[in-house]
Structure formats: structure tokens, C-alpha cells
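so my prof wants the structure for this chain in the C-alpha cells format not the other one, which i didnt know existed until like an hour ago. anyway here's the sequence
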Amino acid sequence: MGLRELLIPQDKIFFEMFERQAATVREAAYLLVALSEDFTNVRDKRHAIELLEHQGDQITHGIYEQLNRTFITPLDPEEISRLASTLDDVLDYIDGSSEKMYYYGIENTDSHMVELSKLIHLSTIEIEGAVKGIRSIKDPRYIEERCIEVNRLENLADDVLAHAVTDLFQTNDAIMIIKLKDIYEHLETATDYCEDVANVLSDIAIRHS
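here's what i got, hopefully its the right format
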């Protein structure tokens, strides 16, 4: 065994933490869909997502701590930092979307919110698969396919947002327009950050295959 192999952590702790982080993001997205499809017990459902956001913050903090005390890492330090940061951004916007749904006091969600939430969830499923793939990168094409699908879903979210805003401005309630537009845009931004995660994963797959 060479010096590099001796120095690299054999437990692959970074991959384990990234997989936990991706699973947390996916679970939060699933709960967001559940909230948007059944807008009851909103406080409890929003709180469950908030708890996952706190859990994700702890994982992100752990990744940075591990990065600061590890001499040789399985990925470039910049790649580790970017992946941790972008995954955290997705979780923040999922949490922020549920927060706005709750605190804005809307009476119900609509089809646009449901569709955007589902696109976020589908994106996080693809991301979780790609994150698992970077542990060994035996099949970089598999990772790239997951990333391409995330990009496709983000484009669909752009279309949903455009239709949502178009429909919204056909109404006359100015306060409600402001509230709903902010929720729509927050949901769509979550898909933008999913695309950022996919771009980081794609770069990792290319550089390390």
C-alpha cells in the first residue's frame, strides 16, 4: 500500500456524509410534496421540514469540520465545499418555501405549487442517485444521466413558474399576488439550486473518471 492509500481515510467519511445529506434533502422534498398536496396540519408539516433543515445544517457543518482536519481527501477540497454548499442551498429553499406557505397564511396551495414541489422532489431523487455514484465513479455515464435529468426538470420548473405568474396576474388581489408570487419563485429557485448540485456532480464525475 502506497503513501496516498495510507493517508486517505479508509472509511470514506465524506461520501457517507454526502449520502446522508442527499437523503435528508430528498426526504425534505418529499414532505414538501405532502404539504402542498394536503394543506392541513400545516404547522406540524412545516415543523417536520424545519427539523430536517437543522439536521442538514449539522451534516454540512460536519463536512466542513472534517475538511479542515483532513490532509488528503478523496475529492478536491473545492469540490467537497461546493457540493456541501449547493446541497445545503436546496434544503434551505425547501424549508423556506414551507415557511412562506405557513407564515403567509394562505388558505390552500394550488396546482402550480404542487407541480413545482414534485419537480423539486424528482430532482432530489436524481441527485441522491448521483451522489451515491461518486463514491467509486465506476459508471460516470450513470452520474451524467442523473445530472441531465435534473437539468430537464429545472427547465420544466421554469415553464411552470411562467404559467403560474401569468395566471396570477389575471387576478385582482394585490396582497395575494405578492404572497403567491414569492412562494412560486422560492420553489422554482430550489430547482435552480438542484441544477447547481447537478453541475458540481457532473464536474466531479468528469474529473475523477
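also thought this was worth mentioning. The two ends are 21 Å apart (CA to CA).
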